[in-house]
Write a structure and sequence with these properties.
By secondary structure, the protein is α/β, with parallel strands linked by helices. The protein has two domains: 19-112 and 225-276, 3-Layer(aba) Sandwich (Rossmann fold); 115-223, Rossmann fold. 43% of the residues lie in helices and 15% in strands. The chain has twelve helices and ten strands. It has helices at residues 34-43, 65-81, 92-97, 99-105, 114-124, 134-139, 141-149, 163-168, 175-190, 207-213, 223-238, 257-268, and strands at 24-28, 49-53, 86-89, 110-112, 127-132, 154-159, 195-199, 219-221, 250-253, 274-276. The strands form two sheets. A six-stranded parallel sheet has the order 4-3-1-2-9-10, sandwiched between helices. A four-stranded parallel sheet has the order 6-5-7-8, with helices on both faces. Keywords: Cell shape, Cell wall biogenesis/degradation, Isomerase, Peptidoglycan synthesis.
Length: 287
């Protein structure tokens, strides 16, 4: 189920004369994917990026698989229309519920965050906790991926339905958020975990809160770091690494552009220019 490469059974056709200069697409339900974008800035400073936040329909973590699949197909169709050369699905819920399906449907390299995150977790410890959205936790995607890599580790998962709304509302330093985090972490601390995986790209924003509640020896694993490392490897294999200066990052959302721009200032250190995109006119051209 968790293929190690984006290339298995796929041939990609890049018609542009210089496809290396085409942007990488990154999408998430909201600001969570900015943790992946920051890693692209650090690890792939020459790459141009188009970032899409599906803010009109967040949180994804309480949606059904059918809903998630519809959203992901619409986003990927739009991404193709923007002529991206690769897409990073910077959303654990989408990676858990839709990645394998859409990889077979779209003639486009698509990376998910779960397998890179699972590999990083196994390298860190043997008693692994995963905090995730309810949909990701219910899917058992992380547990399955981790145990496929190392059957000898132990994995515990906790669904955290309140985290994404609290982060999107910029309530990270609210005392209520600390209490919510305490309740989510308690069963994992009781299991004496040595590693905690951010099973949602929003969750690194909560690092100060989580660190304050966890025993000092517990290692934190951010799959955003690992998925960008995997992106580098795949770009090199495809001959798509850009060596020219990048274009400014383009930001688009399905909800309120102003609200996203305000969040972007906090997480990126600058106020992004954000456009609003509607999928009502998008053509289902992926098949």
């Amino acid at each position: 189920m968790y293929s190690s490469s984006i290339f298995e059974g796929n041939l990609y056709n890049f018609s542009d004369q210089e496809p290396q200069r085409s942007p990488i697409g990154i999408f998430d339900s909201g600001v969570g994917g900015l943790t992946v974008l920051r890693q692209v800035y650090r690890q792939l400073p020459n790459e141009s990026v188009i970032y899409f936040g599906d803010t009109a329909r967040l949180p994804y973590g309480i949606r059904s698989q059918a809903e998630i699949l519809q959203y992901v197909r619409e986003i990927l169709t739009w991404m193709q229309q923007q002529q991206v050369k690769m897409v990073i699905m910077a959303c654990n819920t989408s990676s858990a519920l839709a990645l394998d399906i859409v990889r077979a449907e779209f003639n486009l390299p698509i990376l998910g965050v779960i397998l890179p995150g699972a590999r990083a977790a196994v390298q860190q410890g043997k008693r692994i906790g995963v905090i995730a959205t309810p949909a990701t936790a219910k899917s058992n995607a992380y547990k399955q991926a981790i145990l496929e890599i190392d059957p000898n580790v132990q994995v515990w998962q906790v669904g955290c339905p309140e985290f994404v709304p609290l982060i999107e509302q910029n309530r990270i330093h609210d005392p209520y958020t600390t209490e919510v985090a305490r309740s989510y972490l308690e069963p994992l601390i009781k299991q004496e975990i040595d590693t905690l995986v951010y099973g949602c790209t929003h969750y690194p924003h909560l690092a100060p809160v989580l660190r304050s509640l966890l025993p000092a020896h517990v290692k934190l694993v951010d799959p955003a770091v690992s998925v960008v490392t995997a992106c580098i490897q795949d770009l090199d294999l495809l001959g798509l690494r850009n060596t020219h200066p990048p274009l400014p990052t383009r930001f688009a959302v399905s909800g309120c552009a102003q609200q996203f721009a305000q969040s972007g200032l906090q997480w990126l250190g600058y106020t992004p220019l954000v456009e609003e995109v509607s999928f009502s006119e998008a053509k289902a051209s992926h098949l």
